[in-house]
Design brief:
- It is a single chain.
- The chain is an alpha/beta fold and about 400 residues long.
- The termini are far apart.
- A 5-stranded mixed β-sheet has the order 1-3-2-4-5.
- Helix 1 runs antiparallel to helix 6 and helix 11 crosses helix 23.
- It is globular, with a radius of gyration of 21 Å.
- Among the domains are: about 100 residues, Fumarate Reductase Iron-sulfur Protein, Chain B, domain 2 (Orthogonal Bundle); about 110 residues, Rossmann fold (3-Layer(aba) Sandwich), CATH 3.40.50.
- Helix 22 links the parallel strand 8 and strand 9.
- The protein is built from 23 helices and 9 strands.
Length: about 400
């Protein structure tokens, strides 16, 4: 059973009942990045579940549990590992929405979060902020340094997506694509690669011009009202006469799948629930459609990185591998595939030390496979991995399929 985000603190009883389904078996411990990094019970999924339960029952003050709650990446590896089916991702999102209006943050932290909230969801603002950040990198105050350090040395040129990208040959399907926010600013080629791969497989793609941010970053940081504002825009913008709403960023797809939860107590609930059911990652869509590719002239040894919100939240693991293999590439899976790389939305900005340790750990596991390229399905993961991997090309799965198509 999935549980709704309680607006303004409502449904805390339902949350407590959900939390009670955890039997504290410990299967989640070996997959939790913060437990492995910090080694504390309160920084494990079962530890946080106990703390949330105690707060909701009035046995602990909210202030007493904020640090371990904030330390959680929301990666949902524990959901994959859990034998009891505890939907921890829903619980942590709901609890953060419950807690955020009641907590007080230091001025510097409020300023940083406001900067993120008002730039990342808006590609033009993000590009402008990135230019300023690169020029003033050495002058950035300590709270902003992690954000500035993640910026690439050069921003790619703007490459706006068209309103419609036609299919090649006989049209097999018609979809609408979420363009993404940070992705448009940091790596717009991902969108174009997606369009070209879809087109070669007979898919016509619409890119609704009125769409906006999916709302995932706001939702997972506890700002449910801002998330609902973004989501309402997309409910209006996306057409109903398409075969699917396709995403190519794991975090965005996962966020849109949560629209039904986000609007659980709102008039749009049923519309949001139906919308969420139509959202599908591009790799899964192509795999289910029947992917065809001309084998690459020079097949690569590709290490595939499982983005958390693709593997754990959306349960998509095999489809991207099948696509890469169908194009002739050798695909290898690194050790500890289930562990987060440390990106987790804005986690590498808010918890840079933990994120850096996880990034180094992930890089070591990927490099141990001796890859010629690394594939991933999320812009946040790509940015994080590029910071830690040096010379090995780190590309979106669609970019590899596009660039190394043998035709």
């Amino acid at each position: 059973m999935r549980h709704a985000i309680p607006p303004n603190g409502k449904r805390t009883e339902a949350m407590a009942n959900a939390i009670g389904s955890c039997v504290h078996c410990g299967f989640c411990l070996s997959t939790c990045p913060t437990y492995l990094t910090l080694g504390r019970e309160e920084d494990s999924p079962r530890g946080r579940i106990f703390l949330m339960k105690e707060v909701l029952e009035g046995n602990l003050a909210l202030q007493d549990v904020l640090e371990p709650i904030d330390n959680c990446l929301g990666c949902q590896a524990c959901v994959t590992a859990c034998p009891s089916g505890v939907e921890y991702g829903d619980l942590i999102t709901a609890f953060r929405a419950h807690a955020e209006p009641q907590r007080s943050r230091p001025p510097v932290e409020r300023a940083r979060r406001a900067l993120v909230a008002h730039t990342l969801p808006h590609p033009r603002r993000l590009r402008a902020a990135a230019r300023v950040g690169r020029l003033t990198r050495r002058l950035a105050p300590p709270p902003l340094r992690p954000m500035v350090d993640l910026l690439p040395d050069r921003l790619p040129k703007r490459a706006p997506l068209p309103a419609i990208h036609p299919a090649e040959g006989v049209r097999r399907a018609r979809v609408a694509l979420l363009a993404g926010c940070a992705q448009q600013a940091l790596d717009p080629d991902i969108g174009w690669a997606t369009l070209r791969v879809l087109a070669r497989n007979g898919v016509e793609t619409m890119i609704p011009p009125a769409q906006g941010c999916c709302g995932a970053l706001a939702m997972h940081s506890g700002n449910a009202e801002q998330a609902r504002g973004f989501a309402r825009r997309n409910l209006r913008a996306f057409p109903s006469d398409v075969d699917a709403i396709v995403t190519n960023a794991a975090g965005c797809g996962s966020g849109m799948h949560e629209y039904g939860l986000l609007f659980a107590d709102e008039p749009e609930h049923e519309e949001a629930r139906r919308f969420a059911e139509r959202v599908v990652d591009v790799a899964r869509f192509l795999d289910e459609l029947g992917f065809t590719a001309t084998p690459a002239e020079r097949p690569l040894r590709v290490a595939y990185h499982d983005a958390c919100h693709l593997a754990h939240a959306q349960r998509v693991r095999e489809a991207p591998v099948r696509l890469l293999e169908a194009a002739g590439h050798e695909v290898v899976i690194p050790d500890e595939w289930e562990l987060c790389c440390g990106s987790a939305g804005t986690y590498n900005v808010e918890r840079p030390q933990i994120a850096a340790e996880l990034g180094r750990r992930k890089a070591q596991n990927l490099l141990a496979t001796a890859p010629e390229a690394i594939a991933a399905g999320n812009i946040g993961c790509l940015t994080q991995l590029r910071t830690h991997l040096g010379e090995v090309p780190v590309l979106h799965t669609m970019q590899i399929l596009d660039r190394f198509d043998g035709r």
